[in-house]
Design goal:
The protein is of the alpha/beta class and about 425 residues long. The protein contains 16 helices and 13 strands. Helix content is about 45%, strand content about 15%. The strands form two sheets. It has a seven-stranded mixed beta sheet, with helices on one face. Strands 8-9-10-11-12-13 form a six-stranded mixed beta sheet. The structure holds zinc ion (ZN).
Length: about 425
């Protein structure tokens, strides 16, 4: 179905009839001179008197298909590639854009981004091993319908040939491409290098990952700090422009001033409320434990087609709010300078009569309390890290935990825990 048609139908009915985060590499013309290619991070192209201005290059794996799709629509030179931010699923495909320009004998394209993108790209080189590992874990055996922050099992998190920005800005900038005017604004949200862009005459707003048709991805457990409240402020600033077409980098484009205003308001409100609730408890002296098990997002909010917690989830956002305003100490003094996990596990196993007792109890607890079951499964494995019996139980516990979770991030980590145990008991057989 046409993405705008599907978007309007889904928002207005509240019913999800088909997948909303589509990775088809298919192009749709959304308006005169505006096209989307739906992919791992979408790519948008705007026709201007100075050539095509494209927003996001998609990932390393999808970039070539995205360029092919764009070229089926227009053979005009691409003059500018805008990175909404420096995540691999938005910039990894840039080499395909460069290759296209070279093959067609076009001028090399200029790459426009926020000034922090450079530092991110440097960091990805320095922490390549870590980023490859966490991506394997994040998507651990879970086939992603979303493809956000794509890893693709690459040995390099970001291809060496990824284009560096040729021009950057700090807080805001206006650019003219012929008579097409684009206002760029920096805001922190998912990342510290994010921009959103507005074309006031057309009333088109390119929102990058500030809107992903999932609960805002402000909590990712394995990534650097994210900024929930600034994210909400950015959504409010977007709403002030009164766009009539909202063009996010994942999920569906949204049409209609009122519809867009409603979506932006609901997304901003849930983030503002979450920050308010967490900070209120922090100010009262609550521990992270108390806050995690108290603060909730209303279930009806999480049922909205554009706020489902299928990728990230509010509990992880709560942790990032805590980390932003508080630091990493969680308020439990034993965890300030803890004993090694193996020592703690061994001590408790000795007290209860062995690691297998812990493992059996972990399996039994799956019926009633999966959170607690996982604690006991970990303690058992720390106490007896080579026991096939213990790891068989632990794998079963984590597979069950994974099935009970909604978010891809939780599912990925729990699946990878199960796999870790499987390597122990399968190698014994
Ligand atoms: Zn993204």
């Amino acid at each position: 179905m046409d993405p705008l048609q599907l978007s309007t139908l889904t928002i207005d009915s509240g019913n999800i009839t088909e997948p909303l985060n589509r990775i088809t590499n298919e192009l749709t013309e959304l308006a005169d001179g505006l096209a989307i290619v739906e992919s791992f991070s979408h790519s948008y192209a705007v026709e201007t008197a100075e050539g095509l201005c494209c927003f996001d290059a998609s990932g390393a794996g999808s970039g070539p298909a995205v360029v092919d799709a764009l070229r089926s629509w227009s053979t005009t030179p691409i003059s500018t590639l805008v990175y909404t931010h420096g995540h691999a699923d938005h910039i990894g495909g840039s080499f395909a854009f460069a290759k296209d320009a070279a093959e067609r004998g076009h001028q090399p394209l200029s790459v426009f981004a926020h000034e922090n993108v450079e530092a991110r790209m440097d960091r990805y080189i320095e922490t390549n091993g870590w980023n490859v590992a966490i991506n394997q874990r994040q998507f651990g055996g879970v086939r992603s319908e979303m493809g956000l922050e794509l890893g693709e099992g690459l040995s390099r998190f970001l291809p060496k040939s990824t284009l560096r920005p040729t021009e950057s800005f700090s807080s805001s900038q206006v650019k003219h491409f012929g008579d097409t005017m684009v206002e760029f604004r920096h805001a922190r949200g998912e990342t510290d290098d994010h921009l959103w862009a507005y074309l006031p005459k057309e009333r088109w707003l390119f929102s990058g990952d500030f809107i992903i048709w999932n609960y805002p991805n402000a909590g990712n457990p394995q990534k650097v700090q994210r900024y929930a409240l600034e994210w909400a402020h950015a959504l409010r600033a977007m709403a002030e422009q009164a766009p009539t077409l909202l063009l996010p980098a994942h999920g569906l484009p949204i049409e209609g001033e009122k519809r867009i205003a409603m979506v932006l308001d609901e997304m901003a409100t849930t983030l503002e409320n979450l920050v308010r609730d967490v900070v209120a408890l922090m100010n009262e002296g609550s521990t992270l434990d108390e806050i995690l098990h108290t603060v909730r997002v209303a279930p009806e909010v999480l049922e909205k087609p554009y706020l489902r917690p299928l990728y990230d989830e509010p509990e992880f956002v709560v942790r990032n709010i805590w980390r932003l305003y508080g630091g990493w100490y969680d308020g439990a003094p034993s965890r300030l300078k803890p004993a090694p996990d193996a020592v703690l596990g061994a001590e408790i196993a000795t007290l209860v009569g062995g690691a297998t007792v812990l493992a059996e109890r972990a399996v039994a607890l799956c019926e009633t309390d999966l959170r607690l079951a996982c604690h006991l499964a970990d303690l058992a494995a720390w106490a007896d890290p080579t026991s096939a019996t213990v790891h068989e139980a632990r794998a079963a516990v984590y597979h069950q935990r994974r099935r009970s979770e909604l978010s891809l991030m939780a599912k990925g980590i729990f699946t990878s825990a199960a796999r870790e145990s499987e390597t122990v008991f399968k190698s014994e057989k």
